[in-house]
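Lab notebook, bench 4. Still working through the backlog of constructs that have no structural model yet. Next entry is a single chain of 117 residues. Request: give me the structure tokens for it.
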Amino acid sequence: QVQLVQSGGGFVKPGGSLKLSCTASGFTFGNYAMTWYRQVPGKERELVAGISRDGASAQYGDSVNGRFTISRDNNKNTVYLQMSGLKPEDTAVYYCRVRLLLGADYWGQGTQVTVSS
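Model written out:
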């Protein structure tokens, strides 16, 4: 079955960096774009970044553009989110997601990122 297992995250001071990982199984990873979302309690899930199947192109939400970098290693079935210049408003639960054929969405388990002094 499809699984997305996340790792990384945690607590960091403003201006710090963290790297999230999301390792996939159960589907042909290199055939699908991958995305990262985040969610704060009481708010809708927000698109953070997306990356194409081959990693050649990426897109970012306005609030993270220039600070976050999405990448992938198709040999390791893993997508990454490198977060730098973290701000308190980046505090959220972060999720990786894949949309497979017929629009079926699969999500990672979520990883808490807390940015605070």
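Notes after review: The chain has a mean pLDDT of 96. The chain has no helices and eleven strands. Flag for follow-up if needed.
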